[in-house]
Design a protein that fits this description.
This protein is α+β, with helices and mostly antiparallel strands and 434 residues long. The protein has a single domain, classed as Outer membrane efflux proteins (OEP). It contains 10 helices and 4 strands. A 4-stranded antiparallel sheet has the order 1-2-3-4. A hairpin with a 5-residue loop joins strand 3 and strand 4. It is elongated, with a radius of gyration of 35 Å. It starts with a helix and ends with a helix.
Length: 434
């Protein structure tokens, strides 16, 4: 009987409820790195959830878009649902196998016999099994923080695309108006005999081209808005989504070495791979412990006139043909794979940080040069050329070249502003924090 005392105590402890890790840790990790509030729980509904401080009635800033995405992005919601599965695995890891009771009824000369089997091996392996499940849960939580940062990046990029499309449409509208006005002027001058019909035809063709570009940019804006709705989880909400232009990133980013150092300390996906190494190591220890299948037994048997005689014993599977070598080898290989993934991810993080920083610097410097050295001189030149054309001092071709250069410069500024916003979003995601 004494052989059964310790297993019974362990069984009673194992039957107690385990305290599961809080699901809010992932939301807290996202908030710490992004400065944006993420919900701890999500209801299964199509209705959009509005985070604090966001108002859909006013134009959305880049931060507003990122916050909405954290609360509504459908893929992020699906990913976070995996925490429930990991919690279930952790709960299952802490449970013990039920004792087995075999009872043979007295039939004819066969005496009554009772056999109680308690799985000791499951009790011994339980701490390692639970440790492996806890490590896997923590690893998943860190990887989902990275998914949240990716969602923020995608929302900011989609927001920048809509701002860019709106600005391009506005510039295209100005260009179409200008070309129409020039076409009217050429018609007047043709009637006066100041120019040939060839210049008039060319002016009308340029006006038609500007109108075609205007229509194309209008469709580009509609597509960009649909992509923004999808990123924010508002694809089913067909209300108009207005956006507000975000200020350009202030100043040059820090040196690449400091950014890489910060990324290696902050990136949750790197932390997740570190945890995967620990989880794989704990799984390997657990698999090594599964060599023996050991059970404690309590046997009661009816013996003649002596009544029931009870005795204890053990049941052991002899490890002759297999000692769990396959699963042990697999677990050890998983440790090696996770270690190699860690080294590869460090290399990729360094590249991502350096690339996104260089793209941000490139767009910032090009934007500054284009505004100061190209856009302003062209704007002044286009104004002077139109005034001279009205007086008949210059030809239409000269005016056309001046306006074309101005429009191209305006579109270039719009594209560079959007490129800077996208590069800033990518840099924040690459570093793992704002």
């Amino acid at each position: 009987m004494r052989l059964l005392v310790v297993p019974l105590v362990i069984i009673l402890c194992g039957c107690s409820a385990r305290r599961l890790p809080p699901t809010g840790a992932t939301a807290a990790g996202i908030e710490k790195r992004s400065g944006l509030t993420a919900p701890e729980t999500r209801q299964v509904t199509d209705a959009p959830a509005i985070p604090p401080g966001v108002n859909l009635e006013r134009p959305l800033s880049s931060d507003d878009a990122a916050a909405l995405a954290l609360w509504n992005n459908p893929q992020l919601t699906v990913d976070l649902g995996a925490l429930g599965i990991a919690q279930a695995d952790l709960l299952d890891a802490g449970l013990l196998r039920n004792p087995r009771l075999d009872m043979l009824l007295p039939v004819g000369a066969k005496p009554f016999e009772l056999l109680l089997n308690l799985p000791i091996d499951a009790m011994i392996q339980r701490p390692r099994r639970v440790a492996a499940a806890e490590a896997a849960y923590e690893q998943l939580g860190q990887s989902l923080i990275q998914n949240g940062l990716n969602t923020i990046r995608d929302a900011r990029v989609a927001h920048a695309d809509v701002v860019q499309a709106k600005a391009r449409l506005q510039v295209a509208g100005q260009a179409a108006t200008l070309r129409d006005r020039i076409a009217e002027l050429t018609g007047v001058r043709l009637k006066a005999g100041d120019i040939s019909e060839l210049e008039t035809v060319q002016a009308r063709a340029e006006a038609g081209t500007a109108q075609e570009q205007l229509v194309r940019f209008r469709h580009d804006l509609a597509l960009a808005e649909e992509r923004l709705r999808a990123a924010l989880g508002l694809a089913l909400a067909r209300s108009k989504v207005e956006v507000a232009a975000s200020p350009a990133p202030p100043g040059a980013p820090p040196p690449v070495e400091s950014l890489i150092e910060k990324a290696l300390a902050a990136r949750p996906d790197l932390r997740a791979v570190e945890l995967s190494i620990g989880a794989a190591t704990k799984r390997a220890r657990w698999e090594r412990s599964r060599v023996l299948w050991l059970s404690a037994q309590l046997n009661s048997k009816e013996v003649g006139t002596s009544g029931l005689l009870t005795g204890s014993g053990v049941s052991v599977d002899l490890p002759i043909f297999q000692r769990n070598q396959g699963l042990v080898a697999r677990a050890e290989a998983e440790v090696e794979v996770a270690t190699r993934q860690y080294l590869a991810l460090k290399q990729r993080i360094a590249f991502e940080v350096a690339e996104s920083r260089e793209l941000l610097l490139q767009s910032q410097e090009a934007l500054l040069r284009t505004r100061e050295r190209i856009l302003e001189p062209l704007r002044r030149g286009a104004t002077l050329a139109e005034e001279q054309y009205r007086r008949g001092d210059v030809s239409y071709l000269f005016v056309l070249e001046q306006t074309r250069g101005l429009i191209d410069a305006q579109l270039r500024v719009v594209d560079l502003e959007a490129a800077a916003g996208r590069a800033q979003a990518q840099l924040e995601r690459s570093v793992g924090s704002k």
